[in-house]
Amino acid sequence: MKTMASGFGIRVAMAATTGSLHCDHGYVEWQTPANPRRTPIVMVHASSTKTWDTTFDGRDGFRNIFLRRGYRVYMTDLPRTGRAGQACAATTYTPRPDNDQASFTTWRLGLWLPGTVEPQFYPGVQFPRTREALNEFLRIQYPEFNAPENEQIETDALATLLDELGPSVMLTHSSTGIRGWITGTKTVNVAAIVSYEPGNAVFPEGEVPPPIRRADGMMVPAGEVIPMASFMKLTKFPIQIVWGDYIPAKPDPINVGPRLTLDARRVNVERAKLMVAAINRHGGHAANIMLPDMGITGNTHFPMMDLNNVQVADLLSTFLAEHKLDARR
Asked: What does the mean pLDDT of the chain come to?
């Protein structure tokens, strides 16, 4: 087993009087098992470097699971995040006083509403209900910077990495869902994308669906608009989008205020369904998977870290085999 790390997508900012700054680079750590499969897996996390690594209770995460299954695994920190935090531009961060409560509710472990001291876990949730695991959960998040500039810098870097690796499967999660779609328009080296609960969708110019009504009455854009030529690149490789449990099936007036985040996830599912339909209408191969519909229940926003994460990993292995992405070298 080899373990290595390096930077990718490196930029250098130059100033005539002060010198230079290596910045806006990504960071990638990779491991190679003996007799690896041909196609590597690039795991792109959102606001937590722990996402693909280990679980909240210390079990193997997707990194070790898929290393044991014979895949080369590449773990990334995108520019301006995690171990690649040195930016070419200034950023600001404003702490959110109720971040613990908001994260617990948003990521669907249960409800932790204002005025309540203890969180209430959902019945059957696939999260280890220990103080230690909850402490881990509440400490994994770091600030994200989601301006359009960041999306472009991060996807430029990802495309550079994939061009170095060759055809690769990309795993994305949450806010990196949109990064995956954009990266797929910038390189021919995406072999497949499996996205867990992506936060946004893309549509070609001239085919953008109407806005989606949220539970509080606000109309939310269906997604980002990209040129048709770029969108067509997403039809060249298989895509699977995976959703966990406890997502409302329809607007409910109770899901406003601190619970509005639950309806926002429902909106994201609708966005994904519309994007999948658009990709397939143009000859692509995309699918939207609701885990409860498959008998896999209790999953949070982090199905790759939940108690049944091996079952979720098996679903990914099946997808890779179906699309012949599991061949040995």
From this structure: 93
pLDDT digits (tens, 9 = 90+) for 176-220: 999 999 999 999 999 999 999 999 999 999 999 999 999 999 999
The answer to whether residue 329 is domain-embedded is: no
| CATH number of residue 304's parent domain | 3.40.50.1820
Split into its structural domains, the chain has a count of 1
Q: Please give the span between the terminal C-alpha atoms of the chain, in angstroms, as a whole number.
A: 16
pLDDT tens column, 283-320: 999 999 999 999 999 999 999 999 999 999 999 999 99
- Cβ atoms within 10 A of the Cβ of 10, count? 15
pTM value > 0.85: yes
Query: How do 219-220 and 212-213 pair as beta strands?
Result: antiparallel
Task: Tell me whether residue 128 is in a domain.
Answer: no
Give which of 315, 259, 297 is closest to 125, Cα–Cα.
Answer: 297
pLDDT, tens digit (0-9, with 9 covering 90-100), for 260-276: 999 999 999 999 999 99
Q: Which residues pair with 4 in a beta bridge?
A: 30
State how far the Cα of 241 lies from the Cα of 265, in Å rounded to an integer.
Answer: 13
- Write the secondary structure of 246-304 as one string of H (helix), E (strand) and C (coil): CCCCCCCCCCCHHHHHHHHHHHHHHHHHHHHHHHHHCCCEEEEEEHHHHCCCCCCCCCC
Q: Tokens for 176?
A: 């990196």
**Residue 246 contacts residue 122 (beta carbons within 8 Å):** yes
**Where do runs of H (alpha helix) occur along the chain?**
62-68, 99-106, 131-138, 148-165, 176-183, 228-232, 260-281, 309-322
* Nearest by Cα to 143 from 48, 261, 45: 48
Domain that holds residue 56: 2-97+143-322
Domain-located, residue 132: no
